[in-house]
């Protein structure tokens, strides 16, 4: 006997006698109920034993939350900014708006968004803080380019290339007052959001001139604080071993390298030889137990034996490498990328709206303006010896 989706829901989600949930496949109806509906589903998920029923409910939860792996993050995301603003006014919370390539509810979101899900949103302290402090919203800058490497024998590597993501802090009226570009450590992410919260909460009640003054003062102070925080931070050596023989092989032919390396590097299909990083504030980048468990659940491959996954000391080394890279990214973002944002805000005569600020971030900070349809991937000046250089439309 095959159960219809509606009957299957009655099996998976026992209902109170005086109320009925929408069908499991009606994510729109469930999403319309917002965070309370997500919390009810999560409670039932927690009560279920591991197995197909729990996995099916997990997929429904992802659809309702509009985020992949929402059973770990437990975050509800708006995908319509007007709805997010209405919720912000109703709750008195500001908005944290993620702008990204691709979609947060798809496996192949852009790389930064995927790391947000593992490093930040899965962290219990971060996710709890986000639920309590912000109305969450995400939107897509553009579809994320996908790369498939087909080895011709049934094996493929599927990943994404190019793109970047940013978290925008908007007040309840939708005025953007701060931006965190790129990937941050959990501690730094929360620290910077906590610093902007008082202004973000009070901003809707301010006159335009007062808002401009207070926002300027905030960015001047965070620029000063960042310089002080990172200037004398202790550094410790971390050996990272992201090995690939492809880079060396490609460089043995200058012509082939000119055609293939831009895509290979952008697709993260190569790494460096054994090297040492000297990250600062490394402890702030440590993965939580929940983040580490989600990473293990994704089954990272031991590429020396692709049929197996990393575990034990091998997984420990991979996690240590990720933590060191996150720490390096955090410092770079705070001092360079966000440093540019601080300086913009300190000099703005009029605060930009969200679309204008987002265009500035993607154009000047990320270097991938919307009017470049190829996201910097076009091999201008070099032919590929393929019809139309391999472009298929």
Please give the structural blueprint.
Blueprint: H1 5-12, H2 27-32, H3 35-47, H4 52-65, H5 70-73, E1 77-78, H6 81-91, E2 95-101, H7 111-120, H8 124-133, E3 135-142, E4 146-150, E5 156-160, E6 166-170, E7 176-181, H9 186-202, H10 208-231, E8 238-240, H11 246-250, H12 254-266, E9 275-277, H13 289-297, H14 312-347, H15 354-365
Parallel strand pairs: 1-3, 2-3
Antiparallel strand pairs: 2-6, 4-5, 6-7, 8-9
Helix pairs in contact: 3-4, 7-13, 8-9, 9-10, 10-14
Query: Biggest sheet: strands, sense, closure?
Result: 5 strands, mixed
Shape: globular
Give the strand content.
Answer: 5-15%
Number of domains: 2
Cα-atom radius of gyration? 23 Å
What is the succession of H and E elements?
HHHHHEHEHHEEEEEHHEHHEHHH
| Mean pLDDT across all amino acids | 86
Uncertain runs are: 1-24, 269-273
Number of helices: 15
Helical amount: 40-55%
SSE class: alpha/beta
What topology, given as strand order, has the largest sheet?
A: 1-3-2-6-7
End-to-end CA span: 45 Å
């Amino acid at each position: 006997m095959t159960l219809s989706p509606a009957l299957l829901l009655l099996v998976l989600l026992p209902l109170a006698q005086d109320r009925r949930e929408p069908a499991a496949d009606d994510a729109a109806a469930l999403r319309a109920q917002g965070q309370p509906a997500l919390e009810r589903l999560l409670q039932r998920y927690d009560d279920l034993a591991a197995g197909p029923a729990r996995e099916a409910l997990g997929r429904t939860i992802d659809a309702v939350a509009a985020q992949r792996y929402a059973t770990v993050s437990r975050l509800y995301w708006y995908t319509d900014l007007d709805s997010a603003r209405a919720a912000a006014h109703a709750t008195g919370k500001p908005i944290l708006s993620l702008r990204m390539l691709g979609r947060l509810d798809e496996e192949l979101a852009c790389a930064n968004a995927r790391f947000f899900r593992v490093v930040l949103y899965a962290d219990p302290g971060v996710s709890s803080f986000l639920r309590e402090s912000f109305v969450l919203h995400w939107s897509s800058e553009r579809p994320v380019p996908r790369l498939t490497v087909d080895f011709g024998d049934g094996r493929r590597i599927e990943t994404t290339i190019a793109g970047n993501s940013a978290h925008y802090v908007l007040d309840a009226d939708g005025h953007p007052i701060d931006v965190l570009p790129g990937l941050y450590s959990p501690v730094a992410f929360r620290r910077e959001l906590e610093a902007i919260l008082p202004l973000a909460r009070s901003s809707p009640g301010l006159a335009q001139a007062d808002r401009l003054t207070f926002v300027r003062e905030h960015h001047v102070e965070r620029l000063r604080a960042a310089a002080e925080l990172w200037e004398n931070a202790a550094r410790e050596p971390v050996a990272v071993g992201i090995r690939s023989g492809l880079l060396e092989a490609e460089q043995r032919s200058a012509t082939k390298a000119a055609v293939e390396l831009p895509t290979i590097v952008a697709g993260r299909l190569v790494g460096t030889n054994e090297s040492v990083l000297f990250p600062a504030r490394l402890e702030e980048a440590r993965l939580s137990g929940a983040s580490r468990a989600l990473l293990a659940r994704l089954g990272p491959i031991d590429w020396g034996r692709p049929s197996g996954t990393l575990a034990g000391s091998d997984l420990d080394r991979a996690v240590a490498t990720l933590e060191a890279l996150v720490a390096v990214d955090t410092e770079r973002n705070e001092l360079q990328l966000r440093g540019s944002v601080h300086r913009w805000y300190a000099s703005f005569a009029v605060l930009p709206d969200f679309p204008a600020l987002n265009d500035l971030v993607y154009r000047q900070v990320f270097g991938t303006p919307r009017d470049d349809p190829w996201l910097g991937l076009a091999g201008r000046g070099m032919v590929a010896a393929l019809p139309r250089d391999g472009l298929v439309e």
